[in-house]
Amino acid sequence: MDNNYIHISTVVASTCILMTTVWFFAIRRSSNTRRRVVKRPVGEASCRNYNIVKATVPRFSGLTLKFATTLSNSVLGGFISSVTASEANLYLFRNLQLDDIPTYQPRFPFSGPQAKVNEKCATDNLVLKKQKRSRKEFNYHSVSEFHQAYLSGEVTPSEVAEDAIEAIQMSEAREPKLRAFIEYNTFEIRRMAKESSDRYSKGTWLSVFDGVPVAFKNELHCVPYHRRAGSECFGSEQSVEDAAVVAKMRAAGAMILGVTNMHEFGLGTTGCNPGKLHGTARNPYNTNHYTGGSSSGSSAAVSSGLCPVAFGTDAGGSIRIPSSFCGIVGLKATLGRISYYGGAGQCYSCLHCGPICSSVRDVALAYALVAGPDPRDPFTVDQPEVTLQNFDNIDLYNIKIGIDWHFFRDCDKEILSACEKAVKHLEMNGAKIIDIEIPELEEARIGHIITSIAEMRPTIMNVLCDHYNKISCESRLNMSAASNISATDFVLANKQRTRTINFLKDIYQQVDVIITPGTPITAPEIQPGDLTYGTFDTDTIIDSMRYMFLGDFVGNPCLVVPVGFSQKGLPISLQIHGRWWEEDIVLRIGNVVEMACPPRPQPEVFYSLL
Fold this sequence. Notes:
The chain is of the alpha/beta class and 610 residues long. The chain folds into two domains: 1-34; 140-380 and 390-596, Amidase signature (AS) enzymes (Alpha-Beta Complex), CATH 3.90.1300. Helix content is 39%, strand content 12%. The chain is built from 20 helices and 17 strands. The strands form four sheets. It has an eleven-stranded mixed beta sheet, sandwiched between helices. A two-stranded parallel sheet has the order 1-3. A hairpin with a 5-residue loop joins β16 and β17.
């Protein structure tokens, strides 16, 4: 009887377990189908309070990062990456119903004449014939100074080329290596310099950039170098055609020094690259700190004086973050203003190409040269004329500046103090400060992340499958987290883009520009273990992108300008966000901001080419 009782009990228990399992997995409604969904009215802001969320994902580097990466790509990886994505707030839209029409490919209407292919913007008034220099203060050499030195015969492009080659070699011989340049060709540099020297001797120089040293991010095709996008997996063949911006600078006679370092695939904001072909670029103001990314090498090159002009790309702050951390000027123009033809990036609706220089004036000169329509890049075809009208007009009596103070003040105290002083300077020059509120900032931030990662993922996943062991741990971990993004997330993210663009259009009817700090933190310190396997630091990524994502998500022009230094001697910047196609106003205000910057100390690593 006891045996029969045990048998019956076992059968009943097994049946109960089986029925419970069937009910739980096959019949019960999942939490995904019964969660509370909040409907947001079309075009109406549902959250005007400042709502950016801090991440709670732990920092990984060294062997810990390697272990976390291995785990994330294992059988347990799906669960781990899902938790990571949830902690990073990437599931934000799954609780929202948005009926706005999605914006997958932003287009920005304009009034006035349409720009023509190869039409040149007048810049003669920006070229300074003579610059006042204080012997007591450190100053970078400007494009105009190189040009005037060549015209006067004080120095030739060939002589500058020799100094540049020596400086690059010295930057690689020091410890730690600067790693600004990853490829340069002394024969090519000397050839271009010789041709430029001959033109100056004959009086047939091509432009103000003739003979001026320039460099380009490793993401752009630049003959005869390799376009590797910061990875060992790309660029096995030398480039045979220049990217659009490279071709324009080459046609202007610029002396191309080579290609510069970057964060692998552009998937990071520190510039940390443990790859054998790249290494990590160092911040010239303190080589124990990061440059910022992903245009790390271009910023290090300009900041250290290796060249006055370099080009980067920006889909999440990759021009502006390293410019801010390295104490120089970086411009992300309106989406479609500068051709991205010849670039390796796949984040097509957020990606911009732009100049990084030591001054706003040099950024304006470089921008004027490379901006304009390019039939090979459909984004650029429909745009207004490029202008730099009123660049030197420092009277801002007709300028209205919008500041969302809750947003503005979400930064370190030293940064806030320096940026508030810059705002006071703008007021003293006649600008009117208007309080504004930018709605749904956290939604825009998450929308930007989802959009950019979803657009990049197909290309990188192909590389990940073929070259898994050659890709950095950070890139693998990022792609693992991105695997949790669904088609619905992507659609809702682009519906949010429509909302954010419309919110900003309303704000820009009241103001000419919006101002924020450049970054809320100064350049992060390189931690032990970072250089071997890389680092995955969500806090730093979110912090460094806090004032960056908006411009990439909606495609408006943004400029970062140095306005001071921390007690540790690290640069601090202000950022100017303008209306679409109004780079001239952004640059004009940036020129005034630059005047408020206290004297810049010479970087720890600096080379003078004049």
